């Protein structure tokens, strides 16, 4: 990239991120202008009977018979006929959900009554990631067809399609503006200005699929990890690699890195690897602060707590480890009956939500290690979930082709 091109993209990144938000009144005005009130009705939640009578048990069709399964959900969405790989919740209106899966479609639907609002099509292969922009004004979907498509949330108006990467693995919106990242199997990360779809940068530095990544909470850096056992901290304006850790360092990972998360202060990263370890890393210096070792198999998911110096790691060994980030010691070991697929802390809370191939979703108090809730209802592995900012609603996507809604 030439010096003139670099200056251009740095200026464009600043303009795209800073010019549009985030002022609460402006966001509210945009949502009202888009007719957002048509979908929004969070005040009328009611009790479990109001959600369609799912609570208790429901009948599901087997190969040759109809069986009854325990079902703790209060609502469900059943339009997907293939595994649901991705689910996201509107950032301010927890009843608005988008899900995408193996049927090559995304659907916008309501968590309170299961009503389908819109179908978002145009992909020609499985959808692997869906994400709302920071204000909720836009929805992005990424698929194995290498396409990223963006719509307006409240109207379903199609905005743009961008191509370039190979199969999309993950998407992430900038925390302060309409800039979208996509990580792909071809070792690249792409960045666009939305909703125009204007190309902003491409990040080259990995040598294998970019398994996880995203913007730091302050929006000033990008952190990504790869199957090539590398972690890179990027400057989003210039696409320069600021920090790079590789498997050549004996202290770092020796096998593919599957997961990464950064803390609320944008100072630390935690990784999860197929080698069964996590590393705690200073994002500014690249120093490996600690190696966190309490698992016997691949670590698939990691997360930081917003309010206490805690982190969580989830593994194929059926365990979740709760780590003290300051002492680097395990505080609690939590157990599922099968591989742990995703862990996520409730925003500004010590509570942790986990899902597993054991078909359950669980809510934990990480201070005590107590399981507060165990939700059942899926017939197959729970592949992911979204949780509301207040922690009272969890929406899941499963290998059984359904989405379920659970209430804390």
TrEMBL record:
InterPro entries: Quinoprotein_ADH-like_sf (IPR011047), WD40/YVTN_repeat-like_dom_sf (IPR015943), WD40_PAC1 (IPR020472), WD40_repeat_CS (IPR019775), WD40_rpt (IPR001680), WD_repeat_multifunction (IPR051179). Keywords: Cytoplasm, Repeat, WD repeat. Its main location: cytoplasm. It is found in: Cytoplasm. SUPFAM superfamilies: Quinoprotein alcohol dehydrogenase-like. WD repeats lie at residues 77-119, 120-161, 171-202, 203-244, 292-333, 333-374, 375-408. Coiled coil: none annotated. One of its GO terms (cellular component) is cytoplasm. Pfam families: WD40. Residues 27-50 are annotated as: Disordered. This is WD40 repeat-like protein. It comes from Mortierella isabellina.
